[in-house]
Amino acid sequence: MDNIAGQKSSLSIVTNIAVFVIVLAWLIPTVGLFVSSFRDRDQISASGWWVAPFSVELTYRTRADATPTRDGDAYVPFTKAYSGLTDAEFGQITKWVRANTLQRFGPMRQVPPAQVFEIAFEGIAASPRHKSGVALRFPRMLRWRQDKPLAEIATLDELREILRLHG
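^ thats the sequence. predicted structure below, dont judge the formating
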C-alpha cells in the first residue's frame, strides 16, 4: 500500500527516461534534415543529402606494373580506407584534395597521383570483383608517407605476391 497514493514507482521513472531517449534519437536527425532542406537542388545533387565536415574515404591505387606505360604510370585501385590518420592529417589531405581536384563525380573527386600512404590490413584475398584482383580486409591508413616518392610505391605484382604468400 506504500505505492498507492502520492508516490511514483521506480518503473515510471525508467519509462520517462526511455521515452526521452527515443524522442531525442528521433529529433536529432529530423532537425538535421530540416536544416539541410534549405540547400538547393544543385548542392544536393553534387554532394548528396548530407555533407561530411571532412573527407573520410580515400581510394588507394598501386601501379599496374613496374614499368611506366606510354602515357605514364597506370594506376589500379586496390582498396578504400576510412581511418588511421589524425584529425590534423585529415584536414591537410582534405584541403589538398579540394585544391587539386581534376574531376568530380557527385561526392567523389579525382585527383592526380601525388600522395603516398602506408596501408595496414588484417587479411588479403583474391577478388574477381576488383580491378586489382585482390581485396583487403579491414584496410586502414598506417602513415602518410610524405617522404616517399610515387616511384617507390608497391606494384600490383608485389601485391599479388603478398596474396600468394598470405592469402
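The domain at 58-166 is CATH 2.40.50.140 (OB fold (Dihydrolipoamide Acetyltransferase, E2P)).
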